[in-house]
């Protein structure tokens, strides 16, 4: 069964929507962190999550869109975090992956739409998750890039050929219709499709049902 991770990046009321995601049938709360350098926008959701931490029961799926994610790896390791994902485009990737592992947290590597899947090969022994960006990172509510589906198929073949058990996650522009195309994906990240609706569970169940058809 595919898992659903819900992003509150495009929420107009983050605290309310974090609690709504927490109360929904989502598997994870997807936390997007932006530094104003790796991507143009900047946000700091950590304080809000700390404030709400006694009410949050779901595990966090943290996506660090940052040039230097060191500080936030330390911060998010103190919360109920299952995955911390950093970008493959960074220098010193090994340093960040090692730190995440030292905390006993599962580590993910994210690939921008223009980044080739082969760049993950040297890191495969450490990687628990490959997050395929299906939009250019930095904004919610963008359109899913069609070529992502081919990239996922190639990635699945690569992981099988290297005997890697890493999970595949896809992030950006995913709605109920797009979910039908997402073979081989373990975790679907969806933001605006869920958060802009009045009924989170209905959208989440549509994603889960449509993604599981094949
Ligand atoms: C994009 C973020 C995504 C995004 C998902 O930079 O990493 O998590 O906010 O939101 P939607 O589903 O609206 O594209
Ligand atoms: Zn994300």
Please, could you describe this protein's structure?
This protein is an alpha/beta fold. The chain has one domain: Aldolase class I (TIM Barrel). 32% of the residues lie in helices and 21% in strands. The protein has eight helices and eight strands; from the N terminus they run E-H-E-H-E-H-E-H-E-E-H-E-H-E-H-H. The protein has helices at 14-23, 46-52, 70-77, 93-102, 148-161, 176-179, 192-195, 200-211; strands at residues 3-7, 28-34, 59-65, 81-87, 106-111, 129-133, 167-171, 187-190. An eight-stranded parallel beta barrel has the order 1-2-3-4-5-6-7-8, surrounded by five helices. Helix 4 (93-102) links the parallel strand 4 (81-87) and strand 5. It is globular and about 40 Å long. The structure holds D-xylitol-5-phosphate (DX5) and zinc ion (ZN). Zinc ion (ZN) binds at residues 7, 30, 32, 63, 171, 189.
List the helices and strands and how they pair.
Blueprint (H helix, E strand, L loop, with lengths): L2 E5 L6 H10 L4 E7 L11 H7 L6 E7 L4 H8 L3 E7 L5 H10 L3 E6 L17 E5 L14 H14 L5 E5 L4 H4 L7 E4 L1 H4 L4 H12 L3
Parallel strand pairs: 1-2, 1-8, 2-3, 3-4, 4-5, 5-6, 6-7, 7-8
Bound molecules: D-xylitol-5-phosphate and zinc ion.
Zinc ion (ZN) binds next to strand 2.
Radius of gyration from the alpha-carbon trace, in angstroms: 16 Å
How far is the first residue's CA from the last residue's CA?
11 Å
Secondary-structure content class: alpha/beta
Count the DSSP helices: 8
Helix content estimate: 25-40%
- What is the residue-averaged pLDDT? 97
Poorly predicted regions are none
Beta percentage is: 15-25%
Structurally, the number of domains stands at 1
Strand order of the largest sheet: 1-2-3-4-5-6-7-8
Considering the protein shown, what is the CATH homologous superfamily? Aldolase class I
Give the overall shape. Answer: globular
Using the coordinates shown, work out and report the CATH topology.
Answer: TIM Barrel
Query: For this structure, what is the CATH class?
Result: Alpha Beta
Bound molecules: D-xylitol-5-phosphate, zinc ion
Number of strands: 8
Order of helices and strands: EHEHEHEHEEHEHEHH
Q: Note the main sheet.
A: 8 strands, parallel, barrel
């Amino acid at each position: 069964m595919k898992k659903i991770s819900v992003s509150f990046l495009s929420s107009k009321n983050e605290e309310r929507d974090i609690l709504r995601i927490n109360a929904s049938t989502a598997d994870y709360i997807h936390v997007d962190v932006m530094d104003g350098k790796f991507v143009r926008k900047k946000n700091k959701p950590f304080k809000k999550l700390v404030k709400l931490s006694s009410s949050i029961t779901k595990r966090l799926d943290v996506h660090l869109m940052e040039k230097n994610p060191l500080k936030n790896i330390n911060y998010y390791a103190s919360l109920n975090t299952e995955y911390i994902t950093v970008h493959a485009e960074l220098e010193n990737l090994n340093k960040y992956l090692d730190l995440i592992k030292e905390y006993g947290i599962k580590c993910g590597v994210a690939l921008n739409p223009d980044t080739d899947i082969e760049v993950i090969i040297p890191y495969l022994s450490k990687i628990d998750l490959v997050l395929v960006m299906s939009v250019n990172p930095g904004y919610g509510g963008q359109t899913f890039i069609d070529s992502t589906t081919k990239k996922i198929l190639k990635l699945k073949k690569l992981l099988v050929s290297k005997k890697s058990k890493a999970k595949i996650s896809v992030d950006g522009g995913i709605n109920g219709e797009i979910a039908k195309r997402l073979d081989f994906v373990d975790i679907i990240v969806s933001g605006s499709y869920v958060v802009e609706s009045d009924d989170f569970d209905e959208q989440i169940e549509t994603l889960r049902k449509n993604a599981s058809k094949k």
